[in-house]
Amino acid sequence: MEARRARAGRPAPERRSKGLSLGGPPAHDLRSILNAILYVDRTGIPWRYLPHDCPPCATAYGYFVHWQKDGAFTQLGGRLRRSVRRSRAITPSRPRA
Description:
Blueprint: H1 2-7, E1 15-16, E2 19-20, H2 30-43, H3 57-70, H4 72-87
Antiparallel strand pairs: 1-2
Helix pairs in contact: 2-3
């Protein structure tokens, strides 16, 4: 998708505080999108079988792909790990090579 945008002369979407910069405010609450992503991860169901109270599967999957490419889940895991270690007074470990 980013290659298609680059060919069209448009910049790739950037992460902002309110969601992806796709031209307007997000149509769905970011918390419900994250809950849908976590639901798929936890249950292992295909995206198209998300419950009806979740955002549309294309929306949830689109955010998942963008956040995965952006490294948001890796950053979140690192921040959570540091937070837990601080709360338990464990010294941070160095990344393994």
